Amino acid sequence: MDHRRWRTAAVAVLIAAGTLISPAQAQTARKDDGLALTPPMGFNNWNTTHCRNDFNEEMVKGIADIFVNKGLKDAGYEYVNIDDCWALPQRDAQGDLVPHPVRFPNGIKAVADYVHGKGLKFGIYTSAGTKTCNKDGGFPGGLNHEEQDAKLFASWGVDYLKYDNCNNQGVDAKLRYTKMRDALHATGRKIVFSLCEWGQNKPWEWAKDVGHLWRTTGDISDNWNSMVSIAKRNMELADFAGPGHWNDPDMLEVGNGGMTDLEYRSHFSLWSIMAAPLLIGADLRKVTPETFEILENREVIAVNQDKLGVQGKVIRNQGGNHVLVKPLSNGDKAVLLFNENDSAANMSVTATELGLTKAGGYQVRDLWAKTTTHTAGSISAALPPHGSAMFRVSAAQNWYLYPPAITTAADGQVLYPGALPIVQPGRSVTYTTSVSNTGRLPIALVQATLQVPQGWTAKATSSSFKAILPGEKTFKTTWQVTVPQDAASGRFPVKASFTFHSPHENNPVTRQYSTEALVPGAAPKGDLFVSDLKWLRSANGHGPVEVDTTNGEAKQGDGGPITIRGKVFTKGLGTHAPAHVEYYTGGSCSKVTATIGIQDNKVNPLSLVSYEVWADDRKVYDSGPVSGTDAAKSLEANVSGATVTRLVVLDGGNGKSYDHANWGDLKITC
Ligand code: GLA
């Protein structure tokens, strides 16, 4: 046998053994089926019900009804999908999957028919493994049953399959998912194929012709940290997405209650600009009008569904202030200014940075405020913590038909960028209000006022009135805010109001901007355990910071004793990178000491962090890399003079997984 013939024979053997796809098969099964040319939109029950009993036929029908009655179908939502727990743990005598008789007493086809009857599409779930994922054991998965299951799904009228990754028996992912693709293809029914292998095998590199979308991360949870960390991972993969093959950062949490509406707006804006699938994950029978308002924002949806099909890209990220840009099919640019941080941020970007052609002026549509203005070139927003602003910007001939874009803000003096504005009783602090005219036309009779809590005073130390504010100019006023000696501690609102006359508007325009002031309690005194103090603010990479226990998982209070290399600490903090915890130390403390290291039962090759201590804007301690095998380290940091002492844990650069970082025996001397 010559060399070439030998190779052909070997390939034939592999194909017969089912370990290789023949070139001919690959040809016929190529996924050029015209499906998911824009990111899929719809619903999936998992994020709201998991396997609870309220996941049933009634729910699915209820969602389909709401899609129609509440205008979601008209807004573009199409797929009503069911997730894990729809089947029984055993196949029937023919080897077919069996719908759960209590959840789906009329079978799955009846539900699919109902959904189809509403002019919608129906999706189902299984796993590319021997069993699905749910912790109660799951139901039989599709591995080695690809054809039979695909046929069954097609016979029920399934239009979308989410194919999970649990219990995969170590079989190559490419092989598992390609097999199901071919099985779906062989049914002759057009079925959107959603790969759910959590980004483990970099599907963005190989799945373009396998599935229409692929998960890029682990599961989302209904909290800010989870949503943001998933969004940031997904941002990096923008180049791999396009019509018919999308990055999937998991389903939406909007409306599930774990975030504020402002945070859900950021979540929805991020998913939209990233051309992510928009699968609603809340029980629409129970959500608030605000949730519907977010999910049905058609101008934001239009950005997501734009037929150019480009995933928005990060063009800048300054310490958690992200600028994302998505080119649109009509030449406009969608832009998202996103503030990941716990402190307010003034953000801006120029039309040139967005890649727009040079123009006399630009039209700016604010997709949440629903206003249209013009700008000479700068697009800005004053964003609250976790806030975002989303615009559609176009180079416009007739920009002058719209009023100039005006940004208003108020900022308290801070000790370091991103710090809380702290005002000690009996002292004064400076606030600055600003009105920025980023348009070309002037505004007139600009008046700023600052409102402070009762008993406090706010005195303008520069003019608070400007007769004319020309285009591309900012008007600032500084204020001295004084807090009485006997002021209570707490967080208090400081509200700025602005009025001005703008071209195109008959009445004066009024704008408000709310910020806050933090009045600290008494500074600590003596030798103290830090975990006995009340922090000003904390943030943690996974679940909350825990007091006197290690950081467990996502829930508060689920950590065990702090244990580093066999030694147990009854006092301390349990954090998870990236974390920061801030304490008011009022200039009266001198040193912080602790024993630091990764929690024993969380040690993993991926555990790698570094610890820092900051005295206001000065870094006074840096541990360098700390891994799970490193011995416990003694930390001593000089925090003399610090108004705020900050404890920080950073991810060591290899992702934040398994970064459970302890601060054992954490003490402060004041
Ligand atoms: C995995 C998936 C989730 C969900 C559950 C169901 O965790 O990633 O999206 O489908 O399984 O058990």
Automatic annotation (TrEMBL):
EC number annotated for this UniProt entry: 3.2.1.22
PROSITE patterns: ALPHA_GALACTOSIDASE
SUPFAM superfamilies linked to this entry: (Trans)glycosidases, Galactose-binding domain-like, Glycosyl hydrolase domain
UniProt-listed Pfam families: Melibiase_2, Melibiase_C, NPCBM, NPCBM_assoc
Signal sequence region: 1-26
Record's keyword terms, sorted: Disulfide bond, Glycosidase, Hydrolase, Signal
Family: Belongs to the glycosyl hydrolase 27 family.
Catalytic activity: Hydrolysis of terminal, non-reducing alpha-D-galactose residues in alpha-D-galactosides, including galactose oligosaccharides, galactomannans and galactolipids
SMART domains: NPCBM
Coiled coil, from the record: none
Naturally occurring in which organism (per UniProt): Lentzea miocenica
Cited InterPro entries: A-galactase_NEW3 (IPR018905), Aldolase_TIM (IPR013785), Galactose-bd-like_sf (IPR008979), GH (IPR017853), Glyco_hyd_98_carb-bd (IPR013222), Glyco_hydro_27 (IPR002241), Glyco_hydro_27/36_CS (IPR000111), Glyco_hydro_b (IPR013780)
Glycosyl hydrolase family 98 putative carbohydrate-binding module domain residues: 524-670
The organism's place on the tree of life at top rank: Bacteria
Protein name per Swiss-Prot or TrEMBL: Alpha-galactosidase
